[in-house]
Request: fold
Amino acid sequence: MKVVIADTSHIKYAQDICDTIAESAQVRGTGIARRTPEYISSKIENGNAVIALDGEKFAGFCYIEKWGHGKFVANSGLIVHPDYRGKGLAKKIKHKIFEHSRTKFPDAKVFSITTGLPVMKMNSDLGYKPVTFSELTDDQTFWDGCQTCKNYDVLTRTNRKMCLCTGMLYDPKKVGNEDAEPKQVKEKAFKRLKRIKQALFLRKDKK
Reply:
């Protein structure tokens, strides 16, 4: 198994990547913005993606998106093929794309919005912190990409202040800051976000 920065030789996997992302979202019943093979191919061509391969077989993928004229980047579309789940591959891919992001965009803030607890845990281990959506990019193109998510009505109903996703941010300027929040404060923030999302989810189900 190898996890490498994707290049043009990997464009042939674009359709498989899109299908795996869509199928995973359907199985989990979670909202996710749809991707097209053309979009995935553009990320690969620009050197903004990593791919995991077992020989010639697709095993996993993740890519970088740049927002706000490079002030923010996001690691998006993290997916592992069902045949390779439960083996720690997602963590390897996450670490590889994070390192790649920091190398290509060293001054950018790296952010994530996700409903997945495993992704939140990986983000936290890398130094991300839970934040409100107002601390993320204000690039309208990014938020427009949420329109294909089934939870988009929650985002619009709250005036883009929150959704079922949790916002997390890695700010390179704050790394190693001795005034960083203690563990208890971070845990309190996670619990508060969880309560808000549960309330939003219940309200959505009643409709």
